[in-house]
TrEMBL record:
It catalyses: (S)-lactate + NAD(+) = pyruvate + NADH + H(+). It comes from the Eukaryota. Residues 1-81 form the UEV domain. Interconverts simultaneously and stereospecifically pyruvate and lactate with concomitant interconversion of NADH and NAD(+). This is UEVLD enzyme. Pfam families: Ldh_1_C, Ldh_1_N, UEV. GO terms for biological process: lactate metabolic process; protein transport. CDD domains: LDH_1, UEV_TSG101-like. One of its GO terms (molecular function) is L-lactate dehydrogenase (NAD+) activity. The gene is Uevld.
Amino acid sequence: GNSYNIPIHLWILDSHPFAPPICFLKPTVNMGILVGKHVDAHGRIYLPYLQNWSHPKSTVIGLIKEMIAKFEEELPLYSLSSSDAARQSELLSYIAKITEGETDMKSKSKIGGGKNEGCFNKITVVGAGDLGIACVLAVAAKGAADKVVLLDLSDGAAKGGTMDLEIFALPNVEISKDFSASADSKVVVLTVNSLGNAQTYLDVIQSNVDLFRGIIPAISHYSQNTVLLVASHPVEVMTYVSWKLSAFPKSRVIGVGANLDTERFQYILTNLLKAQVLAKDAWIIGEQGEDKVPSWTSCNLVANQMEPMAACNSREKVANRAMEVLKGKGQRSWSVGLSVADLTDSILKDKRKVHSVSILAKGCCNINSEVFLSLPCILGTNGVIEMVKLEEDPLVQEKLQSSAGSIHDLQQQLKL
């Protein structure tokens, strides 16, 4: 029967109204924060309305109405005694710094004097579906990262597998709903896919784009020097979307692309077809899916005594056999997770290893549009260091140009 005035602070992003505001309680010096299912210790507010934000249906007025309803069920603030007022002032200072745009890590170091985690190899995985959890487990098993953060953006009622991760706590793995937990990540892996009621393939992709509009600006804000590694579908388009929304240099926005297919292709050549000499220069490139193509980075692939034409014919036969075997291999969450762990390991450890990943292909193979395709690249701490030169093959170039054309046409229909 009582009425309360609950002060709040809404941080409107540049991408508003397509992205939801970031919301905080703004307690006065005589108020304390009650941590609950809708509020964390720093006063950050989490509501289904924010998670399901969709322009133009979602509005700030609608958001405030949901806050009223949820805070009626569970009060987020309580009255402080005078002895707690000093600590509350410190918390208010922290919230002010966050809402003014400082990173979580900078604020924590100023307030708590704690160790700066910026020097650590930290990875954030966005999305707690099967793929997200598979990535967390694979990265943790690989041991490349000092800390792995899983950002669970789902509604509390649909947490799914994150409960098991909480029960069987893994060392160095943190689960959070707060974007600030991703601060100073060296690599951010994007695994989220929208599960809306889309009717067409274009609607599905547009739904994913709308989802990314609320994610990429926040991720970019907290980890301005990170490498974005995109595993969401379709990977070529969502990598392009991530690049546009983040405004990062092209070297630091990468799609998982054909890395898994390439590793399998090389394994099949070496172990099943006993063509080890071929395998070391063999790559799967182009568009993920049915339109992927095998290619090579050297023409000296077969024993020197063979004539060039015979060598090419032999290589083509072996490649065709390998591609047939590859067709029978699906891409399950755990296998993509292993591929993601492989890529993050190369980036974090600055291995300068060559991977076939989705990068901006403009300028390659006479492609003039801004599209992302899988091409062999050397990866290091700052993402793509250099693209490896492919053998010139008119057929391969034709297929790449065809993929680029269809992807570009699709991108032109999206609302970014």
